[in-house]
Amino acid sequence: MPLATTRRTGLVDQVIGQLRDAIAQGEWAIGQRIPTEAALAESLGVGRNTVREAVRALAHSGLLEVRQGDGTYVRATSEVSGAIRRLCGSELREVLGVRRALEVEAARLAAMVRTDEELATITELLNQRDDAYRVEDIETYVRADTEFHLAVVRAGHNALLTELYRGILEAVTASVAATTDPHLPDTEAIGHRGLLEAIAARDSERAMAEAAGFLDNLIAEA
After folding, report:
1. DSSP letter string over the chain?
2. pLDDT higher for 206 or 21?
3. Mean pLDDT over residues 111-131, rounded?
């Protein structure tokens, strides 16, 4: 996605907005180095000082990371994600703890208010997840597992909870990858069929217990 040339008013804010949008839309992936200060200045039609201030602001908010002598890298896709990454860092137990706080409530809400269409989506994602595990396609497994949990959160119809969860999605994906052992047989792998059944049956208490159970086990082992 090419960056649009900015107007000459509020240049720093405009550059911040355009860089933020480019990051959110996947112009540069997490961990990828963005173009140099000079290249950004030329593409945006602004001075290098303007770009420097915008990058500094986005680094402060957690979206970018400036590595002296190396360049500037994408660290998160939103301010919420950046803030949570700063708070949790790379500590798996902390990420799992945040997931537990959000996912248990999300499971309760999903069991209460999910639609038939949402249940079908959740079911399909869980089938994709389990099929990928059986053939040891770990990349697909991690993606499907993350999307499964996000679908459960969305089925709770709480916009703020969904936005908070989307903010930690990179951390969720990383935690799924970190806690996946492809060598375990299906019978010993983490399963979510109980959670699916509880949501399907609109049993909110069981849904909460299922969500809390597997996360408590992961936290104990982390």
Report:
1. -PPPPPPSSSHHHHHHHHHHHHHHTTSS-TTPBPPPHHHHHHHHTS-HHHHHHHHHHHHHTTSEEEETTTEEEE--SSHHHHHHHHHHTT-HHHHHHHHHHHHHHHHHHHHHH--HHHHHHHHHHHHHHHHHHHTT-HHHHHHHHHHHHHHHHHTTT-HHHHHHHHHTHHHHHHHHHHT--TTS-TTTS---HHHHHHHHTT-HHHHHHHHHHHHHHHHHH-
2. 206
3. 97
